[in-house]
Amino acid sequence: MSQEDMALELHMSISNVSRLESNKYELKAADLFKWLKITNNPDVLMALYASIDVATSLMTSGATSAVTGAIIFLGGIL
């Protein structure tokens, strides 16, 4: 998913999505839940809640390459 698409879905500017990715913008809980719904990625939420490394959790669960964007997106947050 492109930054433009994510910005549209999250109702925020493209620059804020970029700031999220580079850890220059604080992610609000509401935005995290929107992101999880948009990307259909409940595994990420469970890994964050359980304090498990998200990348390791996704790889062991057999997640596909579509999750790569999720890891990159959350990279600045974690």
UniProtKB/TrEMBL annotation:
Domain HTH cro/C1-type as annotated: residue spans: 1-45
SUPFAM superfamilies given in the database record: lambda repressor-like DNA-binding domains
Pfam families according to UniProt: HTH_3
Matches recorded under InterPro entries: Cro/C1-type_HTH, Lambda_DNA-bd_dom_sf
CDD domains associated with the record: HTH_XRE
Domain of life according to the entry: Bacteria
Protein name (Swiss-Prot/TrEMBL): Helix-turn-helix transcriptional regulator
Organism of this sequence: Tigheibacillus halophilus
UniProt lineage: Bacteria, Bacillati, Bacillota, Bacilli, Bacillales
